[in-house]
Amino acid sequence: MTSTSPQLAAALRYAAAGWPVFACQPGSKVPPEGSRGFKDATTDPDKIGWLWRRADAGANVAIATGAPGPDVLDVDIHDGAPGWKSCAELRRAGLVPDAMAEIRTPSGGGHFYYQGTGQRIAKMPAHGIDYRGAGGYVVAPPSQVGGRPYVVVSKQASPAVFDWAAAREHLDPQPQGQAIEHDQPGRRPGSLDHLARYVAGLQPGNRNDGLFWAACRAAESGDRDALAAIAESARAIGLSEREITASLRSAERTATSQPGPPAEPRPFARVPSRQAEAG
């Protein structure tokens, strides 16, 4: 029953802390077919119950990032990505303040939770570092992917925020005078061709998540050519037509749909942390 689902119970705790939540498919980081992704996120307990009844009692719980939710520094180690090395370099530079929580992800990477701001999602793939801010989301404990859980490593009260611009300047300084949008590094004004290149470089374990992120950016801009190019890149890296179609449709719904069901502490206080260590 949904009343005893650990995922639903965790979703309600996060919501009680003021963090909007929504459901992802069981064992996955992808929202259910027919959902609107992070646009479904809510703190209303009745709506949360509705989302889990519509999805599955075992649906993974996702938190919409950016105020009023948290901002999250995402450390990636997929296929040798140097996320932990980059994180250590930022820490030595004094750019990784104490986080509200550190989460070990199923791949062995990490999520560092900070106070939410208006900073937007951004990526530095070459450094294995992503930033989940406004317009993004993270899957949270006690969710699992590939049979491996998200594990709470530590938690504490912290007012700290993370300065993405300073971190990017330290790891990937840009030429003087070159203006680059936070959520689209290297973008030429008016061009979305970098999104297809980004998808083309995705590795197993991060492909569906990356495809959905890129498709959301193109759908928000209404750029059908960019969506077609993203789909072609996704085929080239081995994603199935079913996976591609589902991700693109979900991204378009997220970008254009209207509100769904009627209505409208401490978020990690009782999240299990005794589960097996993620690899």
Explain what you see.
The protein has 279 residues and is of the alpha+beta class. The chain has 2 domains: 2-175 and 182-187, no CATH class; 188-264, no CATH class. Helices cover 33% and strands 15% of the residues. The chain is built from 8 helices and 11 strands. It has helices spanning 6-16, 45-54, 83-92, 164-171, 193-200, 207-221, 224-236, 241-256; strands spanning 21-24, 60-64, 71-75, 101-104, 110-114, 122-124, 129-132, 137-140, 144-145, 148-149, 151-155. The strands form 3 sheets. A 6-stranded antiparallel β-sheet has the order 6-7-3-5-4-11, covered by helices on one side. Strands 1-2-8 form a 3-stranded antiparallel β-sheet. Strands 9-10 form a two-stranded antiparallel ribbon. Helix 1 (6-16) packs antiparallel against helix 2 (45-54), helix 5 (193-200) runs antiparallel to helix 6 (207-221) and helix 5 (193-200) packs parallel to helix 7 (224-236). The longest helix has 16 residues, at 241-256. It is globular and about 45 Å long. The relative contact order is 0.16.
Précis, in short:
With 279 residues, the protein is α+β, with helices and mostly antiparallel strands. It contains 8 helices and 11 strands.
Q: End-to-end span in angstroms? A: 30 Å
Number of strands: 11
User: What is the average per-residue confidence, as pLDDT, rounded to a whole number?
Assistant: 82
Q: Helical region count?
A: 8
Describe the biggest sheet?
A: 6 strands, antiparallel
Q: Low-confidence spans: pLDDT under 50, at least 5 residues?
A: 177-189, 258-265, 269-279
> Cα-atom Rg, whole angstroms?
18 Å
Morphology call: globular
Structural class: alpha+beta
| Secondary-structure element series | HEHEEHEEEEEEEEHHHHH
Sheet-strand content, in percent, reads 15-25%
